[in-house]
Amino acid sequence: MSAHASRPLLGTFYRYHFIGNGAQFRVYAIHSATDQPTGRVIKVPLDFEETRHVVAAPLSRIATYNTVDEFNALLDARVRDIMRYKHTLPALLQGIYGQDNRFMQNLGQLRMLQAPIPSDIAGAYFLPIYYTQDQVTTIGRYLEHFRFIQPNYPNDLAPSDIAIVQKLVQEIISLHYAIWEYGFFEFVFKPENMGIRMRGSKVEVIWMDLAEHITDKDQAEAILAERRWQHSLLPHKIDYIYLPAILHDYYIKACDEAFTLQEFRKRWRRRCVVQERKQQRRLQRKMLFTKDSQRRVALWVAQQNVPHTLYHGLANERVDDMNIPHKDLITLYNDRQVAPRSPENLEPIERDSAAKPATNIPAYEQLILKYL
Amino acid sequence: MNPHDSIFSELGHGAQFKAFDMHNGRVLKIPLTEAETTQVARRRRNIIHGTLEQIASIDVRVQTFMNSKARIPAMITHGFDEPQPFLQLLGNPALVPIDNLLPEDTPEKRWGAARFVYSQDKVEIVRGLLEYLSAQEKVAASDHKKFVQLVQNYVQHVYATWEYGYSDYIFKLGDMGVRDDGTLVTVDLGEFSSDPQFIERAITEKWWYDNTNPLKSDFPKMHADLVADYLQILDASFTIAEFRKRWRRNHICSACTPESNTISAFIATKVMEIDYVDRL
Predict the structure, then answer these.
(1) In this complex, is the C-beta atom of B124 within 8 Å of any C-beta atom belonging to chain A?
(2) pLDDT tens across A94-126, in order?
(3) What predicted TM-score, i.e. pTM, was given to this entire model?
(4) How far is it, in rounded angstroms, from Cα A111 to Cα A126?
(5) Helix, strand, or coil (residue A205)
(6) CB-based burial of residue B62 (10 Å sphere; 0-12 exposed, 13-18 middle, 19+ buried)?
(7) Nearest by CB: B3 against A302, A308, A316
(8) Beta carbons within 10 angstroms of residue A349's beta carbon
(9) Residues 6+ positions from A327 with CB-CB distance below 8 Å
(10) In chain B, which among 125-184 make CB contacts under 8 A with chain A?
(11) ipTM of the complex
């Protein structure tokens, strides 16, 4: 997600500070009328055309195509995928998922807003839904601090920095484990899909961009074998954040050790299975103490339906209660702000320098040669 | 904050409606378009790129799906003097006022005659149970006993609908719902008929055998251990004699006038039932 600072949008009770956008949402920090942060952000879904606009440039650099028509077809397909993934988000909040406070903490207390974008607004697609979430620092922004530190000179890092960054990688891994236990698989392994919150010396990582997930075990295992977490170390993978070089060795080693088939199988849907058994046992007990034979049959049917019913239903707490007026939502929807590239962002420069072959020509000579 | 106003989550879909959880003990059913219905029909018959004959047969099936669901509003708003007991059998369906929310039909998006949305009680669906049982190597004796009781309850439920002058003609056990108190509910209202001749044909030809036919991919599979009891109970219960004994016995209403019981009722019924082309 790219970041940007601009004048806030003035709503009825709140001010909305544009933070940035990805391919799925525009994100605004929600401030009070007196401009105090509420600690929450609102995520405004991008429609088809906006998504297309965001995706077009990076896709043109990584896709293989011969004609404009071919590229447009690829682009449309990619945008449809993104929209479809976004549509799966509400499932994360339903049934036992939404009731598990620890899991919801991992998701930054994601909540849906009551009002969808009205269907008469042109461009609305796949029932776009607004969400609110805890405001955290993006990993990309946090890692800026570690840019251009050479692995040969680790002394540029304070010991506390080293401890924090190691903890950060471990927390990212733990977060993947936690979501596996509920039968979700974040299939891109993008560190930038995570957010970070520091509580004293405690590092907390939340799953910030949650749409890129699947629930199919076989597909997940096939993706694990591809080791996609490596993409963050490859300068040419421009759809991934390029991790600061100083982190590469530690990150790849930790991920390779953590994201194995064995670890995956050990954890996959573990919590779901526990919850299903617990609920089935509860119904079984109820059935044993029920004399009415018709009611017993109903409990028996319910018992076998647990693998389905446990994952449906939306608790009150999963619906946002900030009472954001509908008028504000329309203003936010129509804002259409796109984050420009930040000049302070060192990520592209470190990526570019990593992509160029090593040279012995001193930098000042390179500059002269360029102008000659 | 009222969660009932929040976004409804999709529970699933059949060939006629998508069902959404309203999070208030009810589900919302929104009709599939013709194109969506075609997709479902193709998937069920495993035909993605079929021959001309296969595609023609799919088209016929789609028309049946589309037209049969169009009869739901007439059924659930029929002017019974006491509609509640009948509606209870159907999960208390209620039409949702949608004004003009469903856009005009276009070649790509057609709802045809079924331009309505309705809500219904949320219940446990029997399909999940059948799937669980069919995955077992052997059905436990206690499960078997409960299954028999379920089928017996089902028979009583179908009898009750006959008494009101309506009958499901697909007899898909998996589409039944169960309330907490054990009473059964017909969840799928799109395959009902009020034409006694048509229902008698379904009874004579024993269409409930589709539940045990492994080739019928849209029916949840029934465990082999259960088939004999299931068929024995239904064969004994769903007979022409039992049907005639019960048909319209409780159909007390002000909507059916004497003349409509004769010629106009006959015409109206025949015109309504004309879409059963794939069952001719």
Answers:
(1) yes
(2) 899 999 999 999 999 999 886 655 555 554 444
(3) 0.76
(4) 18
(5) strand
(6) buried
(7) A316
(8) 12
(9) A11, A12
(10) 125-126, 128-129, 131-133, 143, 146, 149-150, 153, 178-183
(11) 0.73
